[in-house]
What does this fold into?
Amino acid sequence: MTIANSVLLTDLYQLTMLQTYHAERMQETAVFEMFVRRLPPERGFLLAAGLEQALDYLETLHFSADELDWLANCGRFSSQFVNSLAEFRFTGTVHALPEGTVFFADEPILRIIAPLPQAQLVESRLLNLIHYQTLIASKAARCVLAAPGKLLVDFGMRRAHGAEAGLLAARAAYLAGFGGTATVLAGMRFGIPLFGTMAHSLVQAHDREEDAFEHFAAAQPDNVVLLLDTYDTEAAARKLAALATHLQARGIAIKGVRIDSGDLGENARRVRRILDEGGLRQITLFASGDLDEYRLQELLARGAPIDGFGIGTRLDISTDAPTVELVYKLQEYADKPRRKRSEGKATWPGRKQVYRRTEADGAFAADCLGLEAYPQPGEPLLQPVMVEGRRLAPPEPLDVIRNRVRAQLAALPPALRSNRTAPPYTVIVAPELRELADRLDRETH
It folds into this structure.
């Protein structure tokens, strides 16, 4: 069993609560919802992602013999409780936003309906899976909006916080509209297109820069993208222009060049001029180096002749907003609505639905957060995806999710499609939901 599949990849308090529920026979149906309390200042919207991995986790959830042995011997849990975990499985119902759906604060993106112990135990890992991919997909979508029509490639695996993060960042960025990734396992696991060039070390390992270019081209004749800025970017571009005719005679075409340092816009203009003067207009320019949506916007506003971008560190750790307030809260237990009233952290109680209202042209007009039992005008966004612990449909192909993202981003109000601060999107709270919250507030605990 891998670390990622272990049911013990959770917080201790999940298990201590489960022992309490077991001792008190608290097994009635609970309803938990996952939502974001508030958007980061830098974000006008978020993009739901990670549902596929969440459903995998729920379908395969169980305690292994080794895990049960460890729990029995750790000194924290009764033998009766540990023995009860041997048959533990998730048998609940799940509603969720389809991956690639735009959402806003307070809107549930996932609802779990299951016996209380089951619904409780899954909290930490579900948040872990959905928070990260939602974070990265939302950042990637902003890059896509900042650089329409440009090739964007995830370069961030080496900076991601762990192996699983690097892999899932590639998936999240791709579903948000990136053209591909440099992470090879993502190509094998998810079928994501792979892109790569060369490192400075290959050039440094040769005595002559042009020899490095020629040897790399001979080894990768169908994917020749050369890195120009190891020493002198313009000099390297001139060497490449001289080499291109020689390679062409061998049936090898240079597809592109990459610039990774300095003033990317100015270097791109100079390299473009050298290549064009050498009759190499077909060679594309690719840039990388500490990029994000703000830098993309700046470069393109200055007219930088760059065809594609590799985006790494600032994407895979979402530098400007490295977390969102994604939480998982009890909204109903034993057929009674429940409401948390903590200062600054109060929740809207009951089983809720998000209803999206659109203009005649399909643009988002406003959302309504309401109780599921009181339908509101608009399209209901939460959809059933699992019943009795089993998926209702096979996993969605990533291309289907990408098309959904494309349509969702196109339907955003224009102010939210920019990376500047915009007025918040309108989310209306239905009167029935407000009345329920007010009634629960009047009750004494």
User: Anything to note?
Assistant: The chain is about 40% helix and 20% strand. The mean pLDDT is 96. The longest strand covers residues 29-36. Residues 196-288 form a domain with the TIM Barrel fold (CATH 3.20.20.70).
